[in-house]
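lol ok so funny story. i was supposed to be doing the assay writeup but got distracted and ended up predicting the structure for this chain instead. priorities right. anyway since i did it might as well share w the group, maybe its usefull for someone
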Amino acid sequence: MPDKAEHRPVARSGAQQITSADTRVTTPTVSSNRQATRRAVSRALRSQPGRRAPLAPASVFPPGGRRTRWMFTYGCKICGAYSLGRAADIDGVAGVRRASCGHWVTIMIARCYGRPETAA
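and the output, tada:
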């Protein structure tokens, strides 16, 4: 059985050696204003003729118990993946947003379960 050490890549002369002290983990900054991002994407999709995010019908569940936010599930029409979303109120459910698969979809409320009038 061959020795693994002889198959490992060796740094050539002039190449930088990276040590563990040199490596740093950086996290990308997340936009704090997601509503503005959704509006900008929605505007951009509307401005280009023939280019709209596909419609994704959603099932909406009102807040209940300890939950204070509206929950909704929807399927991506492009790849078929299902996603779970949350919104502060019922008006925040519908609209253009990025699904968990990465595709842009237009959320439409298709079904509302429970009793929204008694929800907190």
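The first strand starts at residue 55 and ends at 61. The CA atoms of residues 4 and 10 lie 13 Å apart.
back to the writeup now i swear
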